[in-house]
Amino acid sequence: MRDVALARHATGVAVTVDLVIFTIRDDRLQVLLVERGKQPFLGMSALPGGYVRDGETLDRTAMRELNEETGLDGRRLHLEQLKAYGDPGRDPRGRVITVAYLALVPNLSAPVAGTDARAARWVPVESVDFDELAFDHAMILREALERARSRLEYTTIATAFCTEPFSISDLRRVYEVVWGFPLDPSNFRRKVTGAEHFLIATGQRSTPEIGRPAALYRRGSAQLLFPPLMRSG
Question: How far is residue 134 from each of residues 8, 125, 140, 141, measured CA to CA in Å?
């Protein structure tokens, strides 16, 4: 499909969508990377993505690519447009502008490679070799990572990493993994339970093998976090 689209736009500008898909697996923030099965950058790691098809919106392309790479419905997940990247030299095949999307998803099983990828895998962010990423995907990944970290301060998207119902400890661990440092449990509980419409108590409790049962919650109606939960605090 990519070759057909590229040929169709050979005399103009091609448009693609690339996805930065973050999840938390094995208590680490991980990103979905594919191994390119075609030139250019044959064998190198890259973000999943594809060309925008005729009659297809950017959002629809992003949701289709997300479904093809993860099997998930983008309408049920946190999926937002990150930025457009259009450096004239970013793709050696010609002028290609890509629109990057950020997706935050709960813990997923091993992914299946798409049509032009040899393999797909979850990679811990701290283990990514940014110098070995194809195209300008190192820049895209870095900016997506900062977007995810900053969005946790002002919005309620941290719950996108959680499978409902979840405990306060589960939610705190999301912040710790994404931000990369530990948080005080009591202070965190006070802030998130005091934020307007952030969490809704289910009335249920967990049944741990060890320790006391924890109260369980589901995400509330708020999209913005008020008051915000600042990294500096």
Answer: 23, 16, 11, 11
